[in-house]
Amino acid sequence: MQYIMLLWPHANARYQAAAQKLAEAELRLMLDRAAPGAVIAPGELDMPCLSVEFDAAPPAAAIEAIRRHSLLYGLFERRDGLLAPVAGRLPARVGGDLPAILKYKGKTNEMFLQLLVNAALYSGDYWDRADEPLKLLDPMCGKATAVFVAANLGWDAVGADVDKGDLKEAENYFKRYLEYHRFKHTLARESRTLPGGRSAAAVRFEYAADARSFKASARTVSLVNLDAAQAERAFGKNAFHIIACDLPYGVRHDAQPARGADRRGNWLETLLQRALPAWKAALKPGGTVAMSFNAQNFPPQRLRALLADAGFEVVETGQGFSHWVEQAITRDIAIGRKPR
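-> structure tokens emitted (340 positions)
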């Protein structure tokens, strides 16, 4: 049985140029778990698309995976030379525009961040539980775009960052969004206790579409002012199913390091040497960390070696996710799985 997956006509020209390659790499990773043996190839229509062939009727998990794909526009079955509609994108749990509205310098495209989250999900042991309220951490969340992607999946999401200004802007934006769309919600100020008598300020949203669903199935978004290497101390062991992080690219919008951090040499590598063991401890067994990064500043083999040194099982992705963004940025993805 042959299916045609039409790809989203993305407005970002740089991202669109790599869309076909990225879409195929993402789909292969997803279907390796949901439907091993599926044959994926570039489509033959005069529009961006992929062809997917199954030996028999595809399992429900395969259709579900395709509906989660970051660049799906529509899925069709080819019958007698015609295309019969099968499925569209999974509906956003909060709002399809939630990760897109807030604009800022250096923002990573929200569809790419959805790809990053999917890569983490389908590299770990919880991909078949994606309809459950999984828990995601972005330990360098900036203004929380990846957190909002996770919220749209119906998950509980935590964003941590050392930049109080970015967190405050994300907080104000999410509050206004919930108010404008009339979500039932609460906002609580909290403090995460750290060793040495220190603490990390946090804000926690609990929300649902209406009062009835709030009582039954409210979801949470938390934003925490925290050094990325303090994840285990702030959240405890085995707290998250997924960690997804868009690392600083080190070009124009370099991240602000934590107070006292050493910027000499490759400060990001130094930070990851401290942070990756903490991220591993904060993950549940079988959970995954997925990081996007600038391969021009951080050699992929070095980042994957750091994952292995921290005790992760490195997930091989080949060159499928490597793509040019601009003159000084070639973006790639590295994935590690916490052993059972």
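The mean pLDDT is 93.
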